[in-house]
Amino acid sequence: MSAPAPSPRRDGARLAVPGPVWGERPARALPQDPGGRAPPRGPTWTRLLPGRDRGPEAIDPEAVLARAGRIGARPARDPLRRRRRAVAAVVRALVARGLACGPTGQALALAGATLAATTGLVPRANQYRSAALLLAQRLVELDTGEGKSVAVALAAGVAALAGAPVHVLTANGYLARRDAHAFAPYYAALGVSVDAVAEEDDAPRRRGAWRADVAYAASRTLGFDWLRDATAAPDAPPLLRGLCVAIVDEADAVLLDEARTPLVLAEQADDPVGRARAWRALDVARRLEPGADLAIGRAGAPVRLTPRGAAAIERQVPGGDLGAARERDAWVEEAATALHALRRDVDYLVDATKGIVLVDRSTGRGTPGRHLSRHLHLLVALKEGLRAPPAMRVAASVTYPDLLARYHHVCGTSGTLAEAARELRRDYGLRTVRVASHRPSRLRHGPMRVFADRDALFGAAVRRAGALAAGGRPVLVGVDSVDDASALADAFARAGVPATLLDARHDADEAERVAAAGRAGRVTVTTQRAGRGTDIGLERAALDAGGLHVLNLQHNRSARIDRQLVGRSARRGEPGSTEHWLRPDADALRGLAPAAWLARRLAAPRGDDGAGAALRHRLAALLWRGCQAWWRLEDAAMRGDALRADRDRSRRLDVAARANRNRAPRLEGMGSG
Known about the structure:
alpha/beta; Rossmann fold; Pre-protein croslinking domain of SecA; seven-stranded parallel beta sheet; globular; disordered N terminus
């Protein structure tokens, strides 16, 4: 896949573009690649700009302006000629006022004026600054609702004018199609092509879409197409044409939340012995006692055998029935994980046609095609009484950090990066810059409260949301899982309060449900899926009543995910408010016994209006910030270990893939948990 390594001077001074210098399919040669360069010192990802940071002016301005200057010199029959002349006049005015300094600033001003003329979206100063930082290979934190899509389009347009193929990576295919369609007139006026790559498209359609100057796609679509190219026969036409510029929307989700989840390309394999052992392992695991025979940690974590449990299965399982002792213990631990750690309507859904559909815990969305690692997927299917899925054999694997490291220019944006800025700098060599909002925030925060259990929490939430909705305010209630969402929706129905449910079961009409969430008096119950990629537009009556109220009942390990949900309210300087309520029996607190004990002591009694209420609220906020700080350190350490292990594994897999390049197996894409 990788072209010969270019000279260091060119590698640091300009964007990678196809041609005689960079090769027909430019991509960085990683240190683990056979024939690759020596490992660089410092961060794994080298910065685009060499030496002293000179800002975005180092980005090949002559090529940009030479191509951009042709926009106003089209034939007279061109219906956009007058519009292009008006755009050029706007650019000259911006330069004369000093608002677009330097060649790259002028190119961004040209792109912004073109965007305003073709779509009616007038870029603001913070969007211009964000686009310039993206071109300087930075991660940009821009608040939700401040127009990250516009900043990405500005940067992508300028990079495409420079001749570099640009990949804009989004959270899902819906967002890729939406943005490619919305900005199509803008790119057409710039003279660059744009397309969206969908997972359901056939190979010729995807190949043509990847050849556009700007290609929008979900990050997992890119990963699977890259794996297909890496394992294809030498004479097969590739899907991608290189890895030049990547602009990652919701960069923290890709670089952090999904960094430990590899994308796996696999082929079917007959494994009757594995199915028989899965049944036997489930039977043994069901007879073990949780706590005494099985050590169960936090939700979703693997279950381990205790010494008593190991002795119990030594007596129960005949020699060789589940393989050798170590293999037998591994089978039973995986079966116990399927039984006790992975829960229906929380970690996965059961679909009549698709079977087991995993739920992405960071987004709340279902992920068809993604499989659990090793034998877990088979064990979960058998636990639910489903037909055993076919066994899969791994053909190739890659993680997002390993894949994105192959790009010559990587940048990204998100509304929640500050908490992980040090980790992103340490692991990826990418700096994070915060760009201020266009208008001051009008978000009002209510006190944090703790309730004794789920019933008390949901009862208070129904009363609070019902009172706000009666006053004309839309309310968004966020919960942890699909199961919690269904239970809370039932509680609203029993109370006579109409509520719309938005969870992983409602993929088909997600856009309609999100659009309706901004109506006056509307109550919407949602999982984490409403935290990313959704824009709740408010009616005038809803704004006059006080804007959207976000009632956060989630127990997220990361403060970033809390901020994503809260970011649905008070966008673009609109009014809004938020409250965060907790319960001590939540799954997140299962592994922190002292924190759960203190949360129970802080639980609000009936009629929480006493003199100690304010103190309990402050202590609850301190407790939760402490828990999230602990989890942040724990998760960062786990991601760092996984990243190093994945780079070692990628070195071995890459050598094996190159050795077997002549073999073209029938492959199916899936992700591994």
